[in-house]
Amino acid sequence: MPGGPEEQPESAGPGAGARRQYDKRRANREARIQAMYPRTARLRLALGAAPQHETSWKQGAEGEELVAESLERRCGNLCQFLHDRRIPDSRANIDHIAISPSGVWVIDAKNIKGKIKVQTTRKHGERLFISGRNRTNLVDGLDRQVGLIRQAMAEIDPDVPVRGAFCFIDTDMPVFRQLSVRGYPLRWRKGMAKLLEHDGPVLPEHIAWLTRELGARFPAY
Questions:
Q1: What stretches of 94-203 show up as alpha helix (H) in DSSP?
Q2: Non-local CB neighbours of 148 within 8 Å, separated by 6+ positions
Q3: Is the pLDDT higher at 6 or at 131?
Q4: Which of 203, 170, 200, 202 is nearest to 187 (CA)?
Q5: Where would you tag: which of 70, 86, 134, 152 has the fewest CB atoms within 10 A of its CB?
Q6: How far is residue 146's CA from residue 104's CA, in Å, rounded to a whole number?
Q7: pLDDT tens-place string over residues 115-130
């Protein structure tokens, strides 16, 4: 097993990609209004609310930042993290990759309000609903991310397990019952930290090496 100092690859801050998308969309909207209404643009911008497709990027960035801060504070002595990593040949990103004693975790941070429900039917299998809306597409997205990390780990170290999880900020979930969908735990930040703190076969020096190898394959967004 390769050794070396425990240094983490250079990384943009958590939520950097979503924050850039928000800034870009806001700047474009402000430029359009300025061009259409040069005399009243400032007033219109001050009084008008930003559209949901724009503010959702800001909300997502804030969620990623909160998850990163919480997990690093609680688990930074045991784990290493790669935040906001680019998926090669794609505009998509992976919010957080945690390299822990129990293995590699792909963590999708969600800053979404509403009550969570996992519904199972014979026709559709397990589906995720948030505030009554079918959000199973989020599970499909995490499936793809976990699959990509597993492909990479098959080359790096196939003996290290790869898992996925959702980490929510203020979403309404049962207090005394833990939910999962397609085997992915649904947790708040404290519960996610507890999963990362579990013992496992990955030694500290191996964690540092795995972090460097994954960071090279999934660069900062």
A1: 136-156, 189-196
A2: 87, 94
A3: 131
A4: 170
A5: 134
A6: 10
A7: 999 999 988 899 999 9
pLDDT over threshold 90, residue 82: yes
**CA pair distance 65, 124, nearest whole angstrom:** 33
Encode burial over 93-108: b for 16+ CB neighbours within 10 A, e otherwise.
Answer: bbbbbbbbbbbbbbbb
Distance of CA 174 to the CA centre of its chain: 21
**pLDDT tens column, 101-112:** 999 999 999 999
Query: Of 107, 116, 163, 108, which Cα lies nearest the Cα of 135?
Result: 116
Phi, psi of 173, rounded to the nearest 5 degrees: -130, 160
**Dihedrals phi, psi of 194, to nearest 5 degrees:** -65, -35
Say how many C-beta atoms besides its own lie within 10 A of residue 218's C-beta: 22
Amino acid identity of residue 211, one-letter, is T
Average pLDDT over residues 159-170: 95
Residue with tokens 């474009």: 28
Q: What is the mean pLDDT of the chain?
A: 88
- Write down the domain spans for the chain: 16-217
Q: How confident is the model at residue 12 (pLDDT cuts 50, 70, 90)?
A: low
In this structure, the strands spanning 103-110 and 93-100 are antiparallel
